[in-house]
Amino acid sequence: MPRKVKAIVLTGNGTNCEMEMAHACKLAGADMVDIVHISELLFGEKKLSGYHFLNLPGGFLDGDDLGSAKAGANRFLHAPISGADEMLIEELLKFINAGGLILGVCNGFQLMVKLGLLPALDNNFTKQSTTLTFNDSGRFEDRWVYLKANAKSPCVFTGDIDLVYYPVRHGEGKFVVKSASVLEKIEKKNLVVFQYCNAEGAITTDYPDNPNGSTHAIAGICNDTGRLFGLMPHPEAFLHRTNHPRWTREVLPEEGQGLAIFGNAVRFIRSKDF
Amino acid sequence: MSLAVDPKKVDRFMSLARRMGVEATVLGKFTNSGKFHVRYGSKTVAYLDMDFLHDGVPQMKLSAKWKAPKHPEPAFAEPADLGKALTRMLARLNICSKESVVRQYDHEVQGGSVVKPMVGVQNDGPSDAGIVRPLLDSMEGVVVAHGICPRYSDIDAYHMTACAIDEAVRNAVAVGADLDHLAGLDNFCWCDPVKSAKTPDGEFKLAQLVRANMAIYDYTTAYGVPCISGKDSMKNDYSIGLTKISVPPTLLYSVIGKIRDVRKAVTMDAKRPQDLVYILGETRDELGGSEWFAQNGSVGSKVPQVNAKKAMKLYRALHKAIKAGLVASCHDCSDGGMGVALAETAFAGGLGIHIDLKDVPYRGKKRNDYILFSETASRFVVTIHPGNQRRFQKVMTGNVFSEIGFVSADGWFEVTGINGRLEVKEKINRLKEAWQKPLNF
Q: Is the peptide bond before A57 cis (omega within 30 degrees of 0)?
């Protein structure tokens, strides 16, 4: 009897991509998809333990007031759950230790790196070692980019994805590391999942194929179990061929290339490996 | 934000606000006293009759006097190098690419993006309208389009308004909007129209405002596009020393519409070599207030005038053709006329276009630059697959339209003039470069 896949999509305080992220989970075959406001977690009305797959969507948490997702990260680190004897961070760590999947897109990825959920070298999920800062262009960028997948990464979301095309929509997407040794560890463990490349798949630091100047063109990373994954581009914004910027002049498959990320997650949760 | 809450539910509401981290305060209550009563603690600080508050403002009695401005017709000769003229037109600020600005805003949030502001083979051609799907499990779409042409107010704010409304409607039609389901927004950006010491020409400015509103009535009723909202910004004047600068009377008209199936949407980029190029709608030498006349230091007087009946008939036919999948690309003619529209269609598609001006249905002074750059309203340039030609012509019957050329793989933009001479031969890459350069920060 296949496991019923339960997905939670977190929203509140400035998130604005929860609808399409929930839709992606639904299209991918998740049996239950709940859009949950963070206040419901903070008041114990909903619990992460009830789900397999936590989605952290794009948006502008707390208006990016302390830097993108910074206040959101502080909220996760320090907020208690009202009426319970537990901190929100403890509930999150329990979810991770139980093997739950976490996908952070754009603002969600920023939240994960500022919390320390990624790259979580040494399995410390609350120690920040990287960040996502202002694009080299100094501007918000809404454009589509090609991404080359690292076939050696343990990421459970990417399956046999090799080259995909997704939109980026961000002002703070430049991936930066705390030290050279952090970058070395990330690359050695194959935690780099996606890098910006050109249409032929050649990894690049040239603008606009690389829209923000990320170190080593890094667009997305995972932790060493591969169950925690964050990326700046928006797979949930390419679910149907009419999302593609050139769909009126190219013959494209009905399903957008973004759905595979969610499909792989759902399949993994149903599998014995979960 | 202010809310009215049933007193029986206010405790639950306040508890919800607290839970969601929202500061909420009960300020007072609605009564049937007919008074607006404000207290600070126990002290009354305001006590007004509601009738006075809502209906008590004294109405101004103003007079408006219309006197049509007279601008001389220009006396410049047709340029020797029309290709160079077109290149310079593409670089004009009202025409050039706005991509560097557009990409600084998220135009795809919520996952329903269908027609983006930039389209074409390199995602850099100028779309006429936007289409989004608000419900991700439905193929129904919402179309958003705009029209704005303040230069025409130098001649007559009535026709400026008519053209802005027509532009918004035709932009929506160009991507596939259904004509029976459009609504509009009128946004005024105007100079002070009240006569005073500071505004001695108030009576004329007020007449411009009155004429603009007459046009809103005439054209929204003719097109069946109700104004569901709008805004007025009425004091856009600046004084520096003794010089007063007033904005030209400007109406931004925006239209929201529906498209039943977004998969039928059409974008403006030329799609395939050998596709046929058509102009829809008659061109007249209406260059008053045009970019071409401005380029040559003139205003002129023959401002474009909208024939709503003919336009609606054409728009219905075009919509039918789009729904039947007969249209490969569609782009409306606006600033810079057909010359600019065709150049944009070509370079957005990464393809050449060859046209012959003698095939353009035209009435007026026989000049190649006038035909190319006239800003007559209600026109489109359309490309179609040759296999759809017969059906397309059948659908368009009863309207003014003509085949004027073809799309080519050679990357050249070529225009043969009315005397049979090749007047324009430019590489599309050079035209695109000129168009992208001015705001390419």
A: no
Active-site residue (options: A18, A172, A236, A244)? A236
Tell me which DSSP letter residue B248 carries.
P
What six digits make up the tokens of B150?
């303040």
Nearest one of B149, B96, B148 to B347, comparing CA atoms: B96
Q: What torsion do the CA atoms of B159, B164, B170, B175 make, to the nearest 10 degrees? A: 170
Q: Does B19 touch chain A (CB under 8 A)?
A: yes
Question: CB distance from B105 to chain A under 8 Å?
Answer: yes
Asked whether the beta carbons of residue A248 and residue B271 sit closer than 8 angstroms, the reply is yes
Give yes or no for a contact between A51 and A8, defined as CB atoms under 8 angstroms apart: yes
ipTM above 0.90, yes or no: yes
Inter-chain residue contact B108 with A17, CB threshold 8 Å: no
Q: Which phi and psi (to 5°) does residue B412 adopt?
A: -105, 140
Distance, in Å, from the CA atom of B74 to the CA atom of B285, rounded to the nearest integer, reads 13
d(CA B255, CA B226): 10
CB A132 within 8 Å of CB A232: yes
* Secondary structure (DSSP) of B163-201: HHHHHHHHHHHHHT--TTS-EEEEEEE----S-SSS-TT
Give the pairing of strands B250-259 and B329-332. Answer: unpaired
* pLDDT for the residue numbered B169: 98
Confidence of residue B372 (pLDDT cuts 50, 70, 90): very high
Q: How far apart are alpha carbons B176 and B437 in whole angstroms? A: 30
CA quadruple B404, B407, B413, B414: dihedral sign: negative
Q: Give the residue on B whose Cα is nearest the Cα of A18.
A: B110
* Inter-chain CB proximity B120 and A246 less than 8 Å: yes
pLDDT per position as a tens digit, A77-95: 999 999 889 999 999 999 9
Phi first, then psi: give them for residue A259, nearest 5 degrees. -65, -30
- Known catalytic residue at A106: yes
The active-site residue, picked from A106, A155, A197, A222, is: A106
- pLDDT band at residue B284 under the 50/70/90 scheme: very high
Using a CB-CB cut-off of 8 Å, the residues of chain B touching A242 are 114, 133, 262-263, 265
Residue A272 has pLDDT above 90, yes or no: no
How big is the A-B interface in CB pairs under 8 Å? 82
Residue A255 designated active-site: no
Identity at B138, one-letter amino acid code: S
Interatomic CA distance for residues B267 and B13, integer angstroms: 47
CB neighbours (10 Å) of residue A202? 11
For tokens 């952090």, the residue is: A182
pLDDT at res. B246: 95
Contacts of A64 in chain B (CB under 8 A): none
Q: Is A234 designated active site? A: yes
Check: CB of residue B258 under 8 Å from CB of residue B316.
no
Give the integer Cα–Cα distance in Å for B333 and B168. Answer: 12
Characterize the bridge pairing of strands B43-49 and B35-40. Answer: antiparallel
- Is A245's CB within 8 Å of B118's CB? yes
AA letter at B412: W
Q: Are A139 and A87 in contact (CB under 8 A)?
A: no
What's the pLDDT at A1?
73
User: Rounded CA gap, A246 and A159, in Å?
Assistant: 26
- Whole-prediction pTM value? 0.96
Please return the burial class of A140, using the count of CB atoms within 10 Å of its CB with bins 0-12, 13-18 and 19+. Answer: middle
Interchain pair B104, A142: CB under 8 A: yes
List, in order, residues 6 or more apart from B52 with CB less than 8 Å away: none
